[in-house]
Every structure is written in C-alpha cells, then in structure tokens.
Design a protein that fits this description.
By secondary structure, the protein is an alpha+beta fold. It contains four helices and two strands.
Length: 66
C-alpha cells in the first residue's frame, strides 16, 4: 500500500474541519479534489474512514486509529 502525503493531508483537513468544503478551503484545492483524495485513501486502506451525517464527516474508529 502506497499512501500519498496529499491523501493524508486531505484526511487530516477533513478531520479538522468536519467537511469537504472546509478541507478544500484549508488546503486551497477544489472540493472534488478532496473527495477524490479521500476515495483513493479509503480504497487503499480498505476502510470506510468517515460516516456522513447531515453534511458533516464523522471519523470512524478506523479513521481514529489511522
């Protein structure tokens, strides 16, 4: 498994802000860019990293371990 630094940055930004919009603004990239990075990370780790609840991203236990 080859995780990229940018994927981890996006992951951390989502945890910090709770939204893809906030993460995108924090990192200065597009919302679809953040979504793509998160999708790649979830595929590579084979874990669902966030629960989506009313527009917010809540970290799963697997995300907390990562």
């Amino acid at each position: 498994m080859s995780l990229r630094f940018r994927q981890l940055q996006a992951f951390h930004a989502i945890i910090e802000t709770g939204t893809v919009t906030g993460a995108a603004a924090l990192l200065g990239i597009s919302q679809p860019g953040i979504s793509n990075l998160l999708t790649q990370l979830e595929r590579q780790t084979k874990f669902k990293l966030f629960e989506r609840v009313k527009g917010r991203f809540i970290a799963t236990p697997e995300a907390n371990m990562l």
